[in-house]
Amino acid sequence: MALYFSADVFPANADMKEQSGIPWGCIIQPLAPLHQSCVTDIPASSIARCSNCYAYINPYVKFGRKTWRCSLCRQENMCTERYMSVHDRKDLPELSKNIVEFDFTEDLPNSSQQRYTGE
Do 4 and 100 meet the contact criterion of CB atoms below 8 Å apart? Predict the structure, then answer.
């Protein structure tokens, strides 16, 4: 899948979007070929999520000293150990790439991991 955004930060509400006068949009290509550099073996459970809207941390968040601000809802979240080092952040795929595929198998219960057989 490929995602392309027209802006780095989302407007807080519809009025702010209209007042900005900036076109805002997103192109989603669900069947776009996946670059191998986007695939990672990092478990999804180790990636930080917003405490308010549950969005995953991404290249568009803003970092404070020990916090990060969600790019979707602007909630302040505490940084975990993984994100404390400013120097190491540039090497993390979830903060350096727009698209990253994570392993969700450990987050699913065993019954959910069974494949659908069509029966």
Answer: no
